């Protein structure tokens, strides 16, 4: 029986500030690629500085389907970036479905699809073709859970779903509540509902390898640059538009650290230090997630990436 030949997709992953965007842009120009962003924070509009969103422009371009309004960075087509209103939610299931669509569209445009980002759950859901339960948010249940402390929530999750409890970020209240919501409303563990489907693509998974001290220095400089570029003013503008601190968009890294500053209980210096600390911790969690994947190939330089990608594409 002839083995099915699957379309090839390049995945470039790694922690925040590792240099993924720079590598991906350079490679995209070399191999004529389109980029699908796998970043749960950069999906939001109006949130550019705090998400370290790569600067681009929305342009009308013609393709085989006619005119399309798309995001371009250095003339490279980017998908799943800068398109969700901060007041709305964007789920892992939605990312998986849209990423599959854009991978197929890239091939129709005679380009190589590249998935680039640091949100491990997004990348895992795509690569493993997870069929994730689409359980709508239950406001009454969420309100009752939000009254509990993180420790109480984790204790409940450990009882209902010890597998998820062992892997989830114990400080991410929103993720914990969502896992509990799915467990309670379906009567089944959240971890058992992510059924893996048949592989749709042939993935090359590359991790950007960076020395830990170098990475931390980059994070420090990046946060300082965010403040210089006007992060505080960006957050102030969002608050004036009535975006709540409880929203998923505003409770993410880059924004939630400034809540107490705007409430007058912390200085700007304290908020900035908190952002640097939380970003370092986030980078460590990203590395932990990606290093668990035995299919990830860790590369030290862009030249290594280019050689490996060209070999993969044949």
From TrEMBL:
What's its EC? 2.5.1.75
Going by the UniProt record, its keywords in alphabetical order are: ATP-binding, Magnesium, Nucleotide-binding, Transferase, tRNA processing
Please tell me which top-level EC class this enzyme sits in: transferase
Q: Signal peptide: which range, if any? A: none
Give residues annotated as binding substrate: 16-21
Binding of ATP: at which residues? 14-21
Q: Which NCBIfam families match?
A: miaA
Would you identify the family this protein belongs to, as annotated? Belongs to the IPP transferase family.
PANTHER family with a match to the protein in the record: TRNA DIMETHYLALLYLTRANSFERASE
Subunit arrangement? Monomer.
Q: Sorted alphabetically, which HAMAP family does this protein's record hold?
A: IPP_trans
> What protein name is recorded for this chain?
tRNA dimethylallyltransferase
Q: Which organism is it from?
A: Candidatus Magasanikbacteria bacterium CG10_big_fil_rev_8_21_14_0_10_47_10
């Amino acid at each position: 029986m002839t083995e099915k030949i699957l379309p090839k997709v390049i995945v470039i992953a790694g922690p925040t500030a590792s240099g993924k965007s720079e590598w991906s842009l350079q490679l995209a120009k070399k191999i004529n690629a389109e980029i699908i962003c796998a970043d749960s924070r950069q999906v939001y509009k109006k949130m550019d500085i705090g998400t370290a969103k790569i600067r681009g422009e929305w342009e009308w371009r013609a393709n085989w389907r006619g005119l399309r309004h798309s995001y371009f960075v250095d003339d490279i087509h980017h998908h799943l970036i800068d398109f969700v209103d901060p007041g709305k939610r964007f789920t892992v299931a939605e990312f998986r479905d849209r990423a599959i669509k854009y991978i197929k569209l890239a091939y129709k445009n005679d380009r190589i699809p590249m998935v680039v980002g640091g949100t491990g759950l997004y990348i895992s859901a795509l690569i493993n073709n997870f069929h994730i339960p689409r359980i709508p948010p239950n406001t009454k249940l969420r309100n009752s859970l939000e009254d509990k402390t993180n420790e109480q929530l984790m204790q409940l999750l450990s009882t209902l779903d010890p597998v998820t409890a062992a892997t989830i970020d114990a400080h991410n209240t929103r993720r914990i509540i969502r896992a509990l919501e799915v467990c309670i409303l379906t009567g089944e563990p959240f971890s058992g509902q992510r059924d893996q489907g048949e592989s749709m693509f042939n993935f090359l998974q590359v991790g950007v390898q960076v020395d830990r001290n170098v990475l931390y220095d980059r994070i420090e400089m990046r946060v300082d640059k965010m403040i210089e570029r006007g992060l505080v003013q960006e957050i102030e503008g969002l608050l004036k538009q009535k975006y709540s601190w409880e929203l998923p968009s505003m409770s993410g890294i880059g924004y939630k650290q400034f809540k107490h500053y705007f409430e007058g209980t912390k200085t700007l210096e304290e908020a900035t230090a908190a952002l640097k600390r939380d970003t370092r911790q986030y980078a460590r969690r990203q590395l932990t997630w990606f290093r668990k994947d035995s299919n990830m190939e860790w590369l030290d330089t862009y030249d290594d990436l280019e050689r490996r990608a060209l070999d993969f594409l044949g």
